[in-house]
Amino acid sequence: METTGTHALLQLTEKTCGLCKTQGNTLRCSRCQVVYYCSREHQAEHLNAHKKSCSQVRKSRDALAAEEQKLRDMPADVLFAGDAFITCVGHFWGVIETRPYMRARSALIHALMAVESRESVQMQLEHGRDMLRLCRGDNVGIRVAVPGALLQLGRDQECYDFVKWYETTGQQGDYNWGDIEGPFLDVHDADVFEDADYVCHRFLSLCFGAGVLLVKTRLLLDLMDLQSSAVDSATRPTPAEGPRLRSSVIAKNEDILKRGDHTAAIGLLQDQVRKLYKALHSSNKYFWEALLAPEKHLHELPAYYSPGTLSEVQSMLKHFPGPSTTIQDRRLSSRSFRTLEPKSSAFYMSRHRSISCRILKAENGKQGSVIAMLSNAAKVSHMT
């Protein structure tokens, strides 16, 4: 947890013990390299729970290293220019010899998703972004993993910018994906309070829509809490500590933090959240139902899907696996739930990941109830 002034920002923390969740540890698992422990004893105690995902990460990393070496050792010929990491940047998939490498790198990202740590999410993000650099066309579909990873790392603005580029420039029919000198992912510091109509279209990606919805929902809930805190502070003899924030955008904006009245912005965001909720439902009528009861779909792994089907949602769950722990449904508090209608719009949140639907930690104001937040489509294991 980070702090900004009197406000604490909820996000994944570095070097957290895989067992007891204490922070600032230096003992790292030598196999997966993305989990830390506070002691040898806790590492040993956590072995049974960790070994399956740890082994998969290690095997996937070894497989990727082998594929990379094959690619680097491949001699140039009439059809292959040699050293693909220099000659093929931007269009890797178009060169058949690079495909095993791209598949192996994607497999590593998915293996890392089973490991619950900030270091794992950071590594997923680094691999995902570099894969997009190597192959702008993203034939393996790894772009859906990026928004959720950014959200888990508390990088809401970057998440919004990433989605906006794909939903604007990336939707243009004349955009030249093969021109690696052309602009790519060049949206920066877009207005997160702006209307989200550009996302609300018939062919909305569930992962991107959920990512924008989560950014907006965090903004909304933080402003509601700041508004409530301002009212409470006016009636107290000594200033109280500010609310714990979900949105890094709010946490970094001193003007917003100092403002006493957020009524207009709250109303604006409420309308946007309603639109996004409806847009996601229109895009796939099974989406919300599946997130409310994800345990029914965790083991359904469709090889193919069509847009708007239950298989599409199940495929998202397959791509973004989470821990097989007990899943609990928690409604928004009555105060927030009334403002976030439509009916049955409980937004669910995962303790450790959200992706392009990975869901981040959040608490609802003073009542401390778990806020449901969306994410890219992850298996959801809820906070208590």
UniProtKB/TrEMBL annotation:
Record keywords: Metal-binding, Zinc, Zinc-finger
Limits of the MYND-type domain: 17-54
UniProt superkingdom: Eukaryota
Coiled coil: none
GO molecular function terms attached to this record: zinc ion binding
Cross-referenced Gene3D superfamilies: 6.10.140.2220
Pfam families reported for this sequence: zf-MYND
Protein name per the record: MYND-type domain-containing protein
Organism annotation: Ajellomyces capsulatus (strain H88) (Darling's disease fungus)
Taxonomy of the source species: Eukaryota, Fungi, Dikarya, Ascomycota, Pezizomycotina
